[in-house]
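Note to self: the last two entries modelled the partners one at a time, which told us nothing about the interface. This time every component goes in together.
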Amino acid sequence: MTIAAIDISNLQGHPDTWPSQAWWPYYVAADLVLVQAIEPPAGYPGHDFIDPETGKRGYTGVALRKIKADGKLAGVYVWLWNGLADTRANILARLATVPASVHLDVRPYVDVEDTTGGTQAFGVVAPTPMTARIVRQLQCEPRP
Amino acid sequence: VSRLQDVLDARIAADAWAASKGLPPSGGYSGDWYRLGYLGGWWPEGWLQWWADYSKPPGALLSDTVVGHQYTSTPVDRSLFDDAEVNAPVANGCTDLINALAYVCDDLGAQLAAEDKRPNIRHTVVRQIIAEMARVREQMLGPKGG
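The predicted structure of the combined assembly is written out below.
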């Protein structure tokens, strides 16, 4: 058996805005919603919103509480930037945006698709939809 | 090597966080385009995959190791997951030890083997691997002699 899932980030905005967006029917139909755990820096979506439970900036917490309140399964993923001085601390800082009140229903996932910070070494050309993903992440945050 | 080590470090951090929350060990989101193009075909041993491939029908990739298939990003990223992912079993102490052993033997072993094939072995790299083995030892078993 399978379950239908969507994954979102701060680019989708505050949950109050979701019903007016084109992807809303897919949210309604989804069993599982995975949210990117991230605290956006100044100038990026969600920075001006401070989560009342975690004290962290961004929509991660409010999105997860909304998902659970809607009776859906919830999960999180974190973006991995390559070449950081302390990768482990960076991942844990992202996961600190997950509210303690939210029980996640699936394991956390690490998003491994950073195409910056080094050359593409093995001669495989990434499909266009995939190369667009790094562009999307750079709309959520700059490369640290 | 840096990219591979970054992935391993991220996994360790996510696994530790998951354990602290009573969740199963982490998985990795990526796709063959990245595994082949940026990781040289490598993927961490035993790390379950949430895999993106927009050319295949929804769910076509699901298997014992691929627990989720992201099949489109229009107008939002959509996936099918194996329902066994929901409230999957949480790792026990033995699983953590098994994963650590696999990491030392497989990943660090592969790094040593790669260095051994070089005409001039880089002692700095060997020392880094030894230091990583010592770190894993301390993480899983505590300080040596302690």
